[in-house]
Amino acid sequence: xxxxxxAPLLLLSCVALTAVAHAADDGEEPVVLTTAGRVRxxxxxxxxxxxxxxxxxxYGKAPVGALRFREPQPAEPWxxxxxxxxxxxxxxxxxxxxxxxxxxxINVQTEDCLFLNVWSPARNxxxxxxxxMVWIHGGGFRFGSSSFSIYDGALLAAYGDxxxxxxxxxxGALGFLYGGTEHxxxxxxxxxxxxxxxxxxxxxAAFGGDQGRVTLFGESAGSMSVxxxxxxxxxxxLFQRAxxxxxxxxxxxxxxxxxxxxxKVKKMAMYLNCTNSSEPETGLPEDVIECLRRADPLHIRVAxxxxxxxxxxxxxxxxxxSLQNEPCxxxxxxxxxxxxxxxxxxxxxFASRSFPAVFQAGSPKNLTKxxxxxxxxxxxxxxxxxxxxxxxxxYTRDLGDTDYEKLRRxxxxxxxxxxxxxxxxxxxxxxxxxxxxxVFYYILNYTSSSPPQKPWYGMSHVExxxxxxxxxxxxxxxxxxxxxxxxxxxxWTSFAKHGKKHLVEAxxxxxxxxxxxxxxxxxxxxxxxxxLNLGDRCRFxxxxxxxxxxxx
Length: 552
Description:
Rossmann fold; eleven-stranded mixed beta sheet; three-stranded mixed beta sheet; Cholinesterase; neurotransmitter degradation; acetylcholinesterase activity; AB_hydrolase_fold; glycoprotein
C-alpha cells in the first residue's frame, strides 16, 4: 500500500532476497551478438522508457575441476541463441544467517556461476554512446548475487539513460582462498570481476554502451572491490570513473605472509580429509590442493562455515601478484573522477546483528553506560581494560547513564567507524593525493518517514542500495522515500555521464584535497557542505589496525 514501508533492515531482508524476475514483455525480444555468441533478452517498460534486459549472460568458463581456485577463463563461443531471460545461478556461499534460504526464485547454488546482467535503454538507432555503470555487489566476499532483485538495474538504466551491468563473482573459499602457491593465488573473485570488465570492454558497444565511459561502482565488499581495481594497473584502463559506497580495502584485507591465512585453509582441509602430515609452513602441498579441487563444493561450503561461522573468513589478500602493496599504502593508477562516501549510521547494521535486543527499531532494551561500553569489546582483539578505557574516552565519556538513545548512537558510531567510515575517509585522502584523481566525498543522511524511525537510527549500512537502484519507486513507497531515491539515481547517473563537471556545476560540490577533507551531506533537502573531521575516533582505529597488521 502506498506510504507503508517496513523498517529499513526488514525491507532489505524482503526485497534484497528475491531473484530478478522480468515483467511482461513489450514487443519483440531483443537479440544481441556478443563476441561469444548471440543472446536473447526481454523488454520492460519503466519510467516511460523501454529497457532491453539481459539476465544470466555467461562471461567465464565454469571454474570447476582443474580451474577451481585459479584465474578465470573467458567463456567459450556458442552457436545457438543463448537464453538471457532468467536469473543466473548463485555462486556457492556460506549462509550464516539463513538469508539465502528465503530467496524467492533462487534454488541453485553452483560453482558454475560466472554470469552477468545488462540493462540498456531501447533506442531507434545503433549508436554506442551511452555511459556504462558496472555494479559489484557486496556481502563480505562470502554472500550475495547479482541475481537479487535489490540489484535489478532496469529502473536505474531507464531513469538515467545509461547502460547498467552487474556480475556474479566467486565468493568465500572458492573465490578468495589463498594457498601460498601460484596454483592457489588468492583474489580469484577479484579476477572474476576483472574478466567481467574485459567482457564489458569487448561487448558493451553491442548493447549501446560507450566502452570509453565506464563507471565502476559498488557497495561494502563491492566498494572494496572497486578499490582493488583502482589500485590495479591491469584494471585501470577498463574504467574511467568510480563510485565507492561504504567500503575500502584498507582495513579489510590480509597479508599473504600472515600464517593465520594458511592455518584457516589447513583447518578447512582437515574437515575435508585433505590433510598431509608433512605440510610445509609457507604453502599447501600439491596433493592437498588437488584434494581440495576434487572435494564437493557444497562440502567446501560446510567446512568454511565450521572454520569461520560468524566472521569474514576469506577476503582480499595483498603481497601477491594481483595486489602487491598493502591497501592502506596502495598506489593508484591513471586519471579518474572518484565519488566516495558513507551513510550517516554505518554501524547500525553491525550493532543490530550482534545485539538485536539492544538495537531493534521497535522497543530496544535500555542499558547503562558501562553495559553499553562492554558492547564494544568485540571490536578490539584482544580486548583490554586500556583499550576499553580509550573507547570510553572517545565515544561515551560525556554521556550519562540514562542517555539511552545517545549511548546507542555512540556504540553504533564506534562499530561504523571501525568497519567502514574511517577506512573510507583515509582512502579518500589517499586517492586525493594522486594529482590525476578528482575526488568528491558524500555523506548520505536520510531517515525514512514510513514508519518513523528512532532518532538514533538513521540510514544504515546497505540501505543506500535500495535508493540507488530505485526500490522505493518500484515498491510505491512514501513520496519522501521515492523523491530521495530519484535524487540518488539522478546524482549517480549524472556522475557516470558527466563526471566531476556535473558535481561542481549542479551542486557546487567541493573537491576533496589532502589538506582539505571537504564533503557534501546529501539529505532530503538541499545538500550541505561539511568537513570530515572525526579526529581521535579514526586515529584510534587506524593505530589499532596497523598494530594488528604489524603483528601478522
